[in-house]
């Protein structure tokens, strides 16, 4: 069965399940590499090297489980965002894909928009007092909605197939 067969809602669900599986795999690999590097540091008694993924000295009251959850949420967000951009390039072509890709960097031209973006990103940073893991649901749902809309309405083949 192909990931592109079925209704648009089913295709979006397949993609979200793939993102979740990718997230678990990347989180596992990341923790494995961190533990491997720390073991090598202890084995060879290296004293002038410290391997740090996130500087925990600046963050108070964060457990290892919360750090793993945060890393997984970041992986999932980045992968979902990249899947959205590849879907835009695939469905709409190079010109519209590049225009949609340039929206984020061009938004930094206006100071008001930049302040709003950085204020919103404060909700997704683990060191911020505004951070809650559930705040990641908002960008996930928005990106999943965009993915669903791109999958559903923009291909001529899809429009003929689902009627």
What does this structure look like?
The chain crosses the membrane at residues 12-34, 67-85, 92-111, 131-150. Keywords: Membrane, Transmembrane, Transmembrane helix. By secondary structure, the protein is an all-alpha fold. It has one domain (8-161). Helices cover 69% and strands 0% of the residues. The protein has six helices and no strands. The protein has helices at 8-43, 64-92, 94-106, 111-121, 137-153, 156-161.
Work out the strand percent: under 5%
- Number of DSSP strands? 0
The structural class is mainly alpha
Task: State the major sheet.
Answer: none
Q: State the order of secondary-structure elements, H for helix, E for strand.
A: HHHHHH
Could you name the ranges where pLDDT drops below 50 across 5 or more consecutive residues? none
Q: In total, how many domains does the architecture comprise?
A: 1
Shape: globular
Individual helix count:
6
- How big is the Rg? 20 Å
Report helical residue fraction: 55-70%
Termini gap: 21 Å
Average pLDDT rating? 81
Question: What does the secondary structure layout of this molecule look like, with pairings?
Answer:
Elements: H1 8-43, H2 64-92, H3 94-106, H4 111-121, H5 137-153, H6 156-161
Helix pairs in contact: 1-2, 1-5, 2-3, 2-5
